[in-house]
Write a structure and sequence with these properties.
Low-confidence stretches: 382-407
Pfam families: Lant_dehydr_N
Number of helices: 24
Largest sheet: 13 strands, mixed
Domain Lantibiotic dehydratase N-terminal: 45-690
Mean pLDDT: 92
Number of strands: 31
Structural class: alpha+beta
InterPro entries: Lant_deHydtase_N (IPR006827)
Distance between the termini: 29 Å
Protein name: Lantibiotic dehydratase N-terminal domain-containing protein
């Protein structure tokens, strides 16, 4: 039985665009070759120089030297040409926000589509110091005795009891990389008192004075207290934070209250002033960044200038609205895609639930106990990547048999239908496969097991067509979180999404997971403190103690056929963990962080989208897949190295190479513009420009498999700048489950 779509869109959307229009790339590659004067012409643009510098300061220096003085090394010159072209391709065709290459803006649904982007130099931006540097700085500041004695210290947020021992996670940095390991100490009376008293924050001198009742000298007490800090049982208020105000502001606001460190505060104040000046425009001179880096050297914390600045771009528009009829198309697409989603196979959470129930049955158990690898059931169950060390839980020890393990592929009826469709299209020499409701009439639509809010990514292609990338995410706020410090409109919009989720779950606690796995990952994890409650784990929470849900406060239980239930003992309420970021937490993360993050999508579908499973790489050509006016998948070419062998042989012979490429594109029916797919990255290529061709060949020459996809966007004029130049686009449309919201409001 077909069901109604229960999701309703929010009134706003987020538009993502590159800094420059697609015309920049097309003009740059419009001739048969790109000549030195073409590079020099673009290099006079200060926005391009600044964007390149923020991406790679060393590359920027090399390009400047090359274009001013030339280079004697032909291979080096070729490499510089290809990298320059890749960057221009990136900042005129790819919409994923990155530095000054691409950014976001907030639009509104209306009665027609009209988007006009301002000139590039009129865009806004937000710059901050990289978390890699800020974390290193905070570590150095804590070593300063003048600062240390004035700071408040708190218990390590990972501490939990194991009988007469306390177990916790500590970390150290080796060559800039953060390594975690489990440590243990005796659960003594005086240590329990210290941890209890320090929950609200306490000076080290006060702890030392309290220890005098145990008949020790003040010197001995001070040594012991410093040992607690060195072993990370106690953590200072300068501990890295990824929630709330930006970490630089937290550091500055903490230090300016302290005595006798005026010089340090003065440096930070001046650096902040220079950063704000940089944010007044796009197209700054590189000297301004060098000036900041020289000032920071006064703080004596080492840094690599490549990892010193982070910038987010805010695209400014004079009008930004999309026809609300698009919503009807998306919602219909969601219903159709729900037919194609096979039930999620057994995941790590379900494996854990089975192991938990087998061990504890209906018993309510501390989360820390259940996840402990020695006394509990641990997490993750039956990890096939390798063995997990019980002492260093985030380090995967490679299994010597790992290369022999084949990925298990389960065939299903959806794959079977798609294979038949592809084979038929190839037989009939069709470029497009058009799906209809009749093709999947025996499948039911079902949107029941999706999150309370979700996002759908689309692209306005032209000719009334929309590229729909699918719907998903544990919350539609996730993909927006990291941009909220940069744009108040995005922040307000995200707060609206979070508020709706709070209403839908008003009888439960939605608690933000606050954790920093690695310093640089903090750049994508930093977001405002959206939610009322937080679960801090090896990162600082800005919440008051009554709004912090500590690891020791969490208990879990599970019924035989039910879900895992996470509960706060203090609040006596079910807790739903939330991670309002786009961080791929599954990559080599600590078990507790992984578990809490997995809990977001317990019992839910993986999302909505086209999944071709094992077919995706099976055929040399897979036609475009459409449903009504929605493009669900671009045409794809799966090539082998053998396809390009003859091209590589003639890479230095311009005329022969051009002729061979013409034959190559004709045989494979490749359009002029295609994208090289490299994981999540996509590189636009002009197959009629020799430099672009050589860049492509140089990139893939050592690959056994090469994936090309069609470039859908061509001359569509829906999204233009004030000079009527066209921009590629990605639009994030967020939805909430209206049925659930109304049901909650009736309670």
């Amino acid at each position: 039985m077909n069901k109604k779509n229960p999701y309703k869109n929010f009134k706003n959307y987020v538009l993502r665009n590159p800094m420059f229009s697609i015309n920049i790339f097309k003009e740059f590659t419009s001739k048969e070759d790109i000549y030195i004067d073409d590079y020099k012409r673009l290099w006079t643009n200060p926005i391009i120089k600044e964007a390149f510098f923020l991406a790679s300061p060393m590359l920027t220096n090399e390009i400047t030297k090359w274009l001013n003085e030339g280079v004697n090394d032909n291979k080096k010159e070729e490499k510089l040409k290809y990298t320059f072209l890749k960057y221009i391709s990136r900042m005129s065709s790819r919409c994923t926000p990155f530095g000054l290459f691409a950014g976001c803006s907030v639009g509104v649904f209306d009665d027609k589509t009209e988007i006009k982007i301002t000139k590039a130099f009129e865009n806004s931006r937000h710059t901050r110091l990289d978390m890699n540097y800020l974390v290193a700085l905070s570590q150095d500041l804590i070593k300063n005795e003048t600062i240390k004695k004035q700071l408040l210290f708190f218990p390590n947020s990972s501490i939990y009891e194991i009988g007469d021992r306390l177990r916790y996670t500590e970390y150290k940095y080796v060559k800039g990389k953060r390594f975690h390991q489990v440590a243990e100490v005796d659960n003594t009376e005086y240590l329990r008192k210290i941890l209890l008293k320090s929950r609200e924050g306490i000076l080290l001198s006060n702890i030392a004075e309290d220890l005098l009742i145990y008949d020790i000298t003040i010197e001995e007490a001070i040594v012991f207290v410093n040992q607690l800090v060195d072993s990370q049982i106690l953590i200072s208020e300068l501990e890295p934070s990824v929630s709330g105000p930006e970490f630089f502001d937290q550091i500055y606001n903490t230090l300016r209250k302290l005595k006798d460190i005026d010089e340090i505060v003065s440096v930070l104040k001046e650096v902040d002033k220079h950063i704000q000046e940089i944010d007044n425009k796009v197209g700054n001179k590189i000297d301004k960044y060098i000036e900041i880096s020289e000032k920071l050297k006064e703080l004596k914390t080492d840094f690599d200038i490549k990892y010193l600045f982070q910038t987010d771009l805010v695209i400014n528009t004079t009008v930004n609205k999309i026809d609300e009829k698009v919503i009807r198309d998306i919602k219909k697409g969601m219903l159709f895609l729900s037919k194609l989603n096979i039930k999620k196979t057994e995941d790590e959470l379900s494996k854990f639930k089975d192991a938990f129930y087998e061990r504890y049955e209906d018993e309510e158990v501390k989360l820390s106990t259940a996840l402990d690898v020695e006394i509990g059931v641990g997490y993750i169950q039956n990890n096939r990547i390798g063995d997990i060390s019980p002492l260093i839980d985030d380090l995967i020890i490679p299994s010597k048999f790992s290369k022999k393990i084949d990925r298990e592929i389960k065939w299903n009826t959806v794959y079977e239908k798609f294979q038949k469709k592809i084979l038929q299209a190839l037989k009939e020499d069709k470029y497009i496969i058009k799906l209809t409701d009749d093709d999947f009439k025996e499948f039911e639509t079902n949107l029941d097991n999706l999150p309370d809010t979700l996002s759908t990514m689309i692209e306005i292609v032209g000719d009334g067509k929309i590229r729909m990338y699918g719907s998903g995410g544990s919350s539609s706020a996730n993909i927006l979180g990291r941009f909220c410090h940069s744009d108040n409109q995005i922040k307000t919009y995200t707060e609206e999404i979070v508020h709706v989720e709070e209403i839908i779950n008003k009888d439960k606690i939605l608690a933000e997971i606050v954790h920093l796995p690695e310093s640089r990952i903090g750049n994508i994890l930093c977001r405002p403190d959206f939610r009322s409650y937080e679960i801090p784990y090896l990162a600082k929470s800005v919440k008051n103690s009554d709004k912090k849900i500590l690891l020791e406060d969490l208990v879990i239980s599970s019924k035989s056929r039910g879900k895992i239930k996470l509960k706060s003992k203090k609040h006596n309420k079910e807790v739903l963990p939330r991670l309002t970021t786009a961080h791929n937490y599954r990559s080599n993360s600590l078990p507790i962080y992984h578990f809490l993050s997995d809990m977001q999508t317990q019992g839910m579908m993986n999302g909505l989208g086209i999944d071709l499973g094992p077919i995706i790489n099976e055929y040399e050509f897979i036609p475009r897949i459409e449903y009504e006016n929605l493009i669900l998948k671009e045409a794809t070419w799966n090539l082998k190295n053998s396809h390009i062998e003859q091209l590589l042989e003639e890479i230095d012979n311009k005329e022969i190479l051009i002729n061979k490429v013409k034959h190559f594109t004709k045989k494979l029916k490749l359009p002029k513009f295609v994208k090289l797919a490299d994981g999540d990255n996509q590189l636009l290529i002009n197959l009629e420009n020799i430099t672009s061709i050589r860049m492509f060949l140089n990139t893939v020459k050592n690959r056994s498999n090469i994936k090309l996809i069609e470039f859908l966007f061509d001359n569509e004029k829906s999204i233009v700048d004030l000079e009527n130049k066209a921009f590629t686009n990605e639009i994030i449309v967020s939805f909430f489950n209206e049925s659930k919201l109304k049901e909650s409001e009736r309670k």
